[in-house]
Every structure is written in structure tokens, then in C-alpha cells.
Amino acid sequence: MRIAVDMGVGPTGQSVPIDLEELLATRLLVQGNSGSGKSHLLRRLLEQSAGQVQQVIIDPEGEYVTLEKYGHTAIEATRHSETEIAKLAARIREHRLSVVLSLEGLEAEGQMRCAASFLQTLFDAPREHWYPALVVVDEAQMFAPTQGGDVPEDVRRASLGAMTNLMCRGRKRGLAGIIATQRLAKLAKNVAAEASNFLMGRTFLDIDMARAADLLGMERRQAEQIRDLERGQFLGLGPAITRRPLKVMIGAVETGPPDAAPALTPLPEAGENAEALLFDGLADMPEPTPPPKPEPASLASETMMEKLAASVAAKREADEPPVPAPDAAEVEPIVASALAEMVAEEDGRPRSSAIAYQDFAVRCRMAGLREPPLDLDAFGRRIAAARAGIAEDPTNDWGDAMEAAEALPDDMLAPFLLIAKAAREGAPSPSEEAIAAIYGTASLSRARRLIDYIEERELIVKRTDMAGKTSITLPGLGWTTAAA
């Protein structure tokens, strides 16, 4: 039985539903500036689907604790240790409880640590607990940032890895990611790209409007209408919503945040007494009490054990003789072999660079390399080339093609190199199915939009002759595929 969740009304007053079962399979991305109505939209979705499916909310500001009215249990992260948060996540999966994890009161680093531990435990639940659940993450750019910011790198990696697992691999485990962000430009592309449903609200920055328009399949000149959306109005697209972009005004909700935004109230009429209210008796007024200085937090036993283990490991490394770095001639065959094996095992279903890099690091250690010879950015380029059938280091013979591809997003490098390889060899153009597979999608329409996007950047020119055969030329490189 299909379950429709009423989200509001469309341009002609018709109801706009979300297919809940389809949403569980295809995930959702919500974007809009502060004040555009993102929280209102999420609250509408949660209220309308309460009782139909388990709901888990990652709440950075403590806005959704009022959903207790619908049977949700609020978890205050400040009252629990990281280990306890992980144990609670395991019980949530086991007993199918709807909860709100409130991260209010934690610093950014603490919020990322807590969310990473919580989400990873949800993901790692045993197979018998893989029940369907909506996992809502508000302010997702905090937990899957494009850059590290002020938090330690290990914290950023853990949080980004947990968010990537949720959006990339959570579906098989019953986890349907619903992420909301103020800035698409600040949200990691690997996380945003896994959503197939979109609700785009008002935004004013050109870079965010351009990314929103790309996700909605709109031309750049149409992106201006995103700036004109009203508060609470969103452009929806996706298999769970509509096949064509549709404006929807989100309906009313029954609950609200604990502390609503201050409303305008009339100013008091001070009149001629304003100076007296300010200056009379100022010298006799007691000095304000300074805020108390926080007590230094004592180290928890777990943190002490981690520091002790790190100290012992550092001492061992110091006592061990240094291992000479291998020659580049020895490293390259190991890298090429590892990449070839990984591409073969993907079987046309490419993983995100962050997840694949962990696998790559393990394979390098098994082959005798203590540290991965490539950083994450370099690995992303190498795995993209390997997926396109370029086993060797692309910086050698494919330098011009790699330089031309710098104008493209990272996830488009592999499809571009697949076309470039066919053009360089004079082979027929890759099929739309092949381009879709290497792009990580089953949608041929997305593959066509990808080709159109690359052609708009003047990197390729697609021609169809009188016989209906198509060839693709790379004008900057002078390569052309065979007509097919």
C-alpha cells in the first residue's frame, strides 16, 4: 500500500504529496537560506508521517524536541557520554523508537563527534534490526562540510564518513537520509549527490542558486526564480514528489520550536526622561557581576585511555628504526593494481571517494606501504581515471585532458575521461548507459544532462550526421570519437 504524505498545495491549489515508500528508497535534500522555512518543512513532513515510519532527528539547535507530542523521545546529548550515545543508537534501531537527538549546548566539535558516533551506530546495526527509518539531519553542512574549518581533521573525517554512509549505503539498511542545509556550496558534494528528491527554497547567492538549478535540471537563466520564492515556498522535484519542477507552499504544522523568534513590540515612551533613565545615579549603581569562569573539564576515563594508547604507540614508533620510503617505480604498480581491483569489484556501482579511499589505504598497507601514496584529492583523480579505463597515472600521458577537466566538478571527471579515451582512440562514443553507470546513476536523463553540462563548458561538441550517427569531438585536444 502506497502512503502519501501531504506537504502542502501547488500553484493551482492542488495537494502536493510525497510518496513515503519512494522517499525511503531515494532520499531527500532540502535547501534554503535562514528564514526560508526549512525547519517548517521538515516539521510538516515529520508530523504528517508520524506513526507511519520510525523517525530519527539530528537536531543541532534543540528545535524539534516539541515532537514529543507525536511520541518522540528527546535525548539531550549534553547529559550523556559518547559511548552512551552509541548505546542509545543501538537500542533505537532494535526497538524502532522515534527520537530527537538534541545537540544544543555542545560546541561544533562536540556536535560532530556525537552525530558521527550516533549515525555510525545506526548504520552498523545487525541485519535483524534493519527496519525502515527516516533519518533527518538539520544543518547538514555542519556534519558534512566541504572544508575542515576549525575542528580537528579526525573529527571532520568521522562526521563526513558517517554522513556519507547514511546517504550512500543507508538504503539497504533501511535508513532514508533527509538532509537540510542553508548553503549547498558548503555541503560535501558526495553527500548531496546521493539524494534523488529535492525541495529547494529561497536563496540569494549565485553559487547556491546555480547548484540548486543543476540539481533541479533547470537552465541557469531559470535559476533566478529561486530568489523570488516566498517564505515557506519550495521547488520540488524527484521520484517521490514530481517528475517536473513544481512550486509547493508548505502546509501548516501543529508544533513549533520551544523558543519562537522574538516578535516586534512597541517601544516604551521615554520622552524627555530618556537622559535621566540613562545617567541619573550611574555612579551608585553596582557593577555588573562578571560571568563565572567555567571549571576545566576533567578528562573522562575513555579519553585518558586513548591518550595513553596514543603515547605508547608514539613511543614504539620512536624506538623502531625508520623504514626507507619505497621508490616511485615500486609504488606505481601497487597503486595501479589496487585501483584496478577496486574498479572491478565496484561492478558499475562507484562508491564515494571518501569511502573508496579507506579501502585503498588498506590495500596499500597489505601490499607493504605504511602510508597511502596518494592524498584524498589525488586518489579521487586516479580512481576516476581507472573507472574510465586509464590504468596508468593520468598526469603523464593525459595531462592535457586532466587540465581541461579542471573546469568540471569532481564527480564528472570519470565520465569526461571515458569520452576522452574513446575520442583519443577513435572508438565509438560511450553509450548513455555506460556514462550513467560510471557517473553512479541508473538514470539516462541524468547522463544526458551531464553530457549537456560538459558541452556547455565547451569541452566537447556533439555532432549527428545525416545518417543519424553521433560523434563527439574534444576541440581543445583535437580528438574525435567514431560515428556510431
Task: Provide a descriptive summary of the structure in words.
With 484 residues, the protein is an alpha/beta fold. Among the domains are: 4-250, P-loop containing nucleotide triphosphate hydrolases (Rossmann fold, 3-Layer(aba) Sandwich), CATH 3.40.50.300; 328-397, no CATH class. The protein is 41% helix and 15% strand. It contains 18 helices and 14 strands. It has an 11-stranded mixed sheet. Helix 5 (153-169) links the parallel strand 7 (133-137) and strand 8 (175-181). The longest helix is centred in the middle third of the chain and has 19 residues, at 301-319. It is globular and about 85 Å long. Residues 296-301 have low confidence and may be disordered.
Overall 3D shape: globular
CATH structural architecture of the domain at 4-250: 3-Layer(aba) Sandwich
Low-confidence stretches: 296-301
Query: Number of helical runs?
Result: 18
CATH structural class of the domain at 4-250: Alpha Beta
Estimated structural class? alpha/beta
Largest sheet: 11 strands, mixed
Mean pLDDT: 83
| Overall radius of gyration | 26 Å
Q: Helical residue percent?
A: 40-55%
- Which homologous superfamily in CATH is the superfamily of the domain at 4-250? P-loop containing nucleotide triphosphate hydrolases
CATH topology title of the domain at 4-250: Rossmann fold
Strand order of the largest sheet: 2-1-11-10-9-3-8-7-4-6-5
Q: What's the multimeric state?
A: single chain
Termini distance?
44 Å
Strand content: 5-15%
Quantity of strands, as a count: 14
Keywords: ATP-binding, Nucleotide-binding
Protein name: ATP-binding protein
Pfam families: DUF87
InterPro entries: AAA+_ATPase (IPR003593), ATPase_Atu1862_pred (IPR014588), HerA-like (IPR008571), HerA_central (IPR002789), P-loop_NTPase (IPR027417)
